[in-house]
């Protein structure tokens, strides 16, 4: 059963929720500088599409999510028919959970080089799309933002779409959630802890970010365990009080469980290779549908590399 | 500085330790049925090679470990010059941390089909080796033990060597430890929780197992967190007493932190793709050296597919 | 327009042709020892499905071919509902045009290990299928026929299906033709010039072979050039007579054009990587449909690894 | 035995040949506009390193070629210690014989992002290197020259090195020859028949091109066959005269042998996957050695992604 709800509990933060049991869509619109400060997030639109069932192979659900993504993406970008779009697949293709962006770029229908060959009647529904996976700093020796800024200055797209794998704040979100925003990518997010920003300021064109949590840090599991002990009354008989468990004590516990020498431990579902493949189909499919609404998918091969 | 120690604290369990700071080798020999029962492990020899430095790219250490593995493996198998050896790479090549066995098989020098072409003077140091990665039950629809038993009955090797990725009991062991045993593989171990056994009983020939921990289950992190809280006096002020924290309470906490719906969550180092590649070179190199001591490695390409 | 024709020009060789412009199916039935000798092929059924359009990305044609393959395969095998089938993907996964067999095995729906879990009403249309890609002699050190014979003796399937990439006799056939036969694989065919046989004699169970030409030898191009010069009246003015161009002269010319030192040169379409992927989908799809007629493909993920 | 020869048969074209039996190096220097016109090649330096033995797995020869490549490359570029170099891997990573450039980029030691971390004593021998594989037009929708021009304008390297797989004029050259030039890449070369130029004019910085023939077109085989018939007296008895075999007749023959509908047929050695891997190690190794002469290769892992 579909439920729909709009609220504005915090002034300047409009929250709309659409829930049809399998898929929950949350649209957050931060509209004032005050709300920006309260939320710790830039003014702009944020959309989250959640579907826990994506964890299991389920083609009809994947197609539903793809359709919703196409709609939310079209709404967020509001693109003109003759816009040129540059799709950027962020992340490291050699690290499975970080390879989502490059895998989406592999499946996106690229048409910018075919514009002169597309018949006028088709053209209305086939936008000019180009795409690249620039690699990460350790592979190229160049900041991703420099590579994309250089290409953007040359190609002059009307919109950049940046796709990235994220570290989730909770295990439940891993490979079940798609996050969109029209504020671009801001420093510090991403599986590989990217330092750069990709946004209107750095590129000079609007940037829509699509992010999918694909891992959680192992420390999140440890932290969640402490919190669970702490919060559940059932375990109260073991504790004097954890009210005053200090942050420094939390760090001590985590350092004990996960020594620094282990480097960065990631938690992923066992079938992460397949899940990343599936999710890249959902995301690329949603983008293709939004950008090329008139393509007859029986003939899409004509446009695909 | 090298230290060497031999002990027999438990009757029937001889333990020898060789420690040269970078690498610790532990040889355990279970010699009596009573010791078998106490240890919960079959009578036989167990060797562990530990080198925490393998976590970091370090070619000289890799070569040292490779050399030690070659020696321990040769010692454990005591193979005749004219023996035929079947190397089996267990695990699923589509799941990165489970792909270690197949990757080792890719790098093992296979010679069984070249025996008639090898000159007599070389032959003394080039054993007859064949190799296969059978895949996992979900890929083949056949129990791995059935596939290997069928091939063994036909090829009649003198020894089967089974290589497998394991789930570690502790994060510290992940991709830093090589475990050898002349008791083969017994049901229930492995990243994919293999159900089958590969041992002298099931195959009719001796089986040496080489296992490398490549993941820990996420629940191990949660369990370690609870134990850390429990054991460290520094946190005592928070607890009444965790002496009597029941197993059922532990399960409740873990189910809270890691709901069943998430499926099997694995913890791996972020660079697991590269670590598995590196480890497969170490293991294949050690096996190649032990089985083909006379090969001039400048000319090894003659034997490699 | 569909045309259908049956002839028996050679006694004991029934030839039936079904031509619908896009796809030509030829069924040859060799029924007598005399015909076997004349044709240089074992008694049995041979089916060829030709669709030159497969060279171009064309999803509806691929689905048509898949459907025809399913029907011809079902007809050729005449399998009981409760039969167990072992699918064997021959060839070397490291050599793109030889990787067709392994790629088909990746996409075949494997069910043998799920038989106890399949509901009775579904079971009628879900046969017990297992599958393996054994690798090639240079990779395993074992003859493929030994590996498959060992597994067959253990698993006892009712039918073995062997899928292989072939060297074509003509460039026109490359990746446009599927060949089926109920006589199995006989020595000497295949991209890698396999020496072994996989047939009822060697395995003790019926063997259906599915072969797809994926390359031609470079020498075929040279030979075709000579023949073209030879046969076309347009070039007659250049020649005294090529009637008596000897085989030895032909060999001399080809050795000149393609020195032995070059090794084995293959001719493939530039997009061979994509064509092999596409063809593996067609073949796996046809097999899946023939073996599991009742599977609802929306739910097929339940059976797929 | 080493032989060395210098000639200037054509005025303005200095040719130097160094032949040590296994490896032949030819250095051509076109120094005048007249010579440019006669040769049909821009003024500049052209170096060819030929080693037919590269066709066979042969590690010592590979290392020799790598060493020669390092020397010729250093000589051709004459780089300052503090130069920044951008390595560009041209070609399509999805088409095996066209994937050489991207594979070289994977193995090049990238250091530009580490400059601040490199100790001063090491710095003299570790140049600032960055690298990218931009993909091909059909994958990105952008001309490669636009992508590289955009990045170059932003990063401002002192030199661009472009690595590309080429179509050979003769089967003998396939994967046995390395071609260097300081004139960059000019339109129309490459396996995928690239249309763009990458040179000082288009990028504003010097460009060194490194090209390796990895395929021949199938039509080259047909053409070679005709020429062999034509030129060898041994076959004269078959022909009236081929003196006046017209170009149009040649085209007719080739169209007969290789119909247009077949698309672009390539001829490659059967082991092309392995040969491309081997060659990418030779080229990347040569570049690494030339650019980072002081790196201790035991510790090179510190710099490698």
TrEMBL record, chains A, B, C, D:
Stated name of the protein: Spore gernimation protein
Entry keywords, A to Z: Hydrolase, Protease, Zymogen
Any one Gene Ontology molecular-function term assigned to this protein's record: peptidase activity
NCBIfam families: GPR
Pfam families for this protein: Peptidase_A25
GO biological process per UniProt: proteolysis; spore germination
InterPro entries (UniProt xref): Pept_HybD-like_dom_sf (IPR023430), Peptidase_A25 (IPR005080)
Source taxonomy: Bacteria, Bacillati, Bacillota, Negativicutes, Acetonemataceae
Keyword Repeat: no
Keyword Protease in record: yes
């Amino acid at each position: 059963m579909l439920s729909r709800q709009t609220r504005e509990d915090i002034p300047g933060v409009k929250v709309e929720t659409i829930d049809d049991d399998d898929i929950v869509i949350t649209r957050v619109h931060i509209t004032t500088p005050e709300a920006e400060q309260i939320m710790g997030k830039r003014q702009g639109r944020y959309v989250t599409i959640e579907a826990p069932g994506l964890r299991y192979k389920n083609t009809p659900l994947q197609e539903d999510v793809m359709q919703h993504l196409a709609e939310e993406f079209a709404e967020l970008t509001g693109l003109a028919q003759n816009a040129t779009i540059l799709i950027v697949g962020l992340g490291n293709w050699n690290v499975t959970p970080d390879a989502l962006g490059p895998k989406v770029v592999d499946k996106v229908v690229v048409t910018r080089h075919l514009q002169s060959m597309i018949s006028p009647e088709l053209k209305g529904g086939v936008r000019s799309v180009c795409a690249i996976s620039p690699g990460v700093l350790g592979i190229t020796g160049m900041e991703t933002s420099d590579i994309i800024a250089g290409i953007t200055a040359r190609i002059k797209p009307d919109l950049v779409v940046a796709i990235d794998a994220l570290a989730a704040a909770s295990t439940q979100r891993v490979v079940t959630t798609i996050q969109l925003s029209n504020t671009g990518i801001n420093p510090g997010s991403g599986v590989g802890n990217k330092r750069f920003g990709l946004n209107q300021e750095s590129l000079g064109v609007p940037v829509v970010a699509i992010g999918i949590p694909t891992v959680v840090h192992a420390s999140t599991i440890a932290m969640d365990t402490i919190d669970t002990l702490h919060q559940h009354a059932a375990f109260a008989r073991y504790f004097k009080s954890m009210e005053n468990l200090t942050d420094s004590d939390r760090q001590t516990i985590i350092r004990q469980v996960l020594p620094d020498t282990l480097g960065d431990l990631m938690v992923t579902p066992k079938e992460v290779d397949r899940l990343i493949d599936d999710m890249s189909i959902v995301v690329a499919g949603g983008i293709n549908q939004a950008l090329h609404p008139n393509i007859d998918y029986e003939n899409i091969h004509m446009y695909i590399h």
